[in-house]
Model the fold of this input.
Amino acid sequence: MPQIIRGTRSHSDSGSPPAPQSPPGRITFENLRRPSSKSIPPADRDHNGVYYDSRAASQREYNRRASTLQSYYLEHPELLPQIPFTFRHGFKRWRLGGYIALMVFDACIVPILLYYALTFGGNVEGYITFAVITAIWGGPTYIEFAVRSFRLVIIKQARFFKPLGTDKRWAFDITNWILVLVIAVVTALLIVGAAPHDVFLRVLSMPGPAILYCLAGPVFLLSLYHHFGWKAPFRISSTPKGEPVWPGVYYIVEDVVAVNARGGRPFREGMASRYKASPIFRKMMRDLSWFWSIGGLIMAVACTVVVVINPVPEEVAYGIGWGVPFLWAGVWGAITIPWVRSVMRHERNTWEQESDMMKSTMMPTPTEENILAGDTTAENRV
Done:
């Protein structure tokens, strides 16, 4: 039975010639440039076969290549498309992880600490406390939003970060528009709640649930479009207007990794190719979209009810409104990580087994191979 070695890097992504063909009965998917063994920790070297060299997703390599990952995988449908991003190697995982951790600290922990410390520890008036919180809140979020907008619109090489199929200067992805909604709603709540001398504490407890509404709502709506087969009313990241909409989580992952983690168009191309080629991957994206969107909306409604009803003291409602949504997101994330790893492991094994079966049924006998190769001696022996 033919053996398949999992590789990740296509030669077409940099314009270099293809690697020499392997011996009959053995298919190899070789990287263009493999990471040296010295640069990979010993514990991770067993995973080298599925490691996508992070340099292949760099902007420099993107500018050099001759064709897209999508065109390469269309020409090689037997290959499982590889996604040019990994959390096992490289600095990108720390960049993305640090970005998420900083946003959670700024959006959740800081408002809670400042409110309870200033109110009960320092006996500071509410309007002063929230003047400080409003001035501080969202600093890293605003900066990161400005940076990702800069990458998509302003810089000369912004094409590397833009969604697939568009080179227009003003072409935000759907995640950028969702962030605009989140920032506008949360800022409005903070301003309205902190404007009077006697602050509206219940209004100031709502930014957490509002973030869930603004994030889970669009994901749920996109997933509905996908479920019913509706066409995109406008461009949604890499999906042009009039094309079928994909699950909502797909766009969030695509945009965040491509722009915030600097995966760029190579990541968008690899993820799109994987989605089109793998039914298991498509099902995972669909299930994750329902899991996050429905769960997020339920949690947002529950927090809203707790915050606005009078029997719950305002001081308690504030902690629930700011803390519970982020705690829920942490639990959902802890469930998602092993779930995704398990599904992708199953996807890889299933793909290899199907490839093995297909190759074994299509592989010519040794005598036929010799005849096709021009071995007249073998033909005479037959």
Summary: The first strand starts at residue 3 and ends at 5.
